## 1
Amino acid sequence: MISFPLLIQYLFGCFLICYTMVQLTFTNKGIVNMMSICGYACVMFFELLAYHWIGHEIMDKSVKIIESSYLSVWYELDKKSKKTLMLLMERAKRPLLIQPYKFVVITLDSLGVIVRWSYSLFALIKAKYG
């Protein structure tokens, strides 16, 4: 359900950040216009940061499920509960990931990729037209 909006957000995030950097660099329409562009860039970045932060936290917490299960008092549980705990630990070997259409994993690392792509595209545009 949420895969399509997340994929669009990921793909267009790079272009929108680059576009706002280009606008800041090449626009000479006054301080008010520059501040509004700066505000838009900050809002876009923090929106991307929110998605990626949550994705990273979900992945990080899901990785810790095995360790937390093992450090519990599992040895005092009955046989059925031990089997359930083992099943939980087996399932937790694969971390939970937010991955729209299996295209990209939404974590803080992928946010870094967006920022690097944005800067690379900006540097290319600036070298061509600047």
Note: Residues 3-129 form one domain.
## 2
Amino acid sequence: MKITIARLKRQRCGASSEKIDREIEQLELALEGLEMAGAAADPTPAADDAGSNATATEQLLPPRRRGKPRIAADAPREVITLDPGERCPDCGGVLRLVGEDRGGSGNLHSGISGLSA
């Protein structure tokens, strides 16, 4: 039941979040009632029980990944240089190379493109 509550707490976003909040409250009340009934029947302290259940819950849930994965420094890089030619075919203006290689940015494809001046 604690695992279900933890899963529902992570799903609180979205259109049905109010329904999930109500379901979480109901499950927490039911869990509290079960824990109280279990505590009355079992003389062992509840603090030890809660610690072991939290650990079990953490072990069952996969770790959350945050952000983009890092690209290894030794990953192969491909530099693409596009030759814009000498003049713009539309206006006849002089074309030049723009851009630079961003060494540590993690881009696999760093390119240089041509634009009209």
Note: Residues 106-117 have pLDDT under 50 and may be disordered.
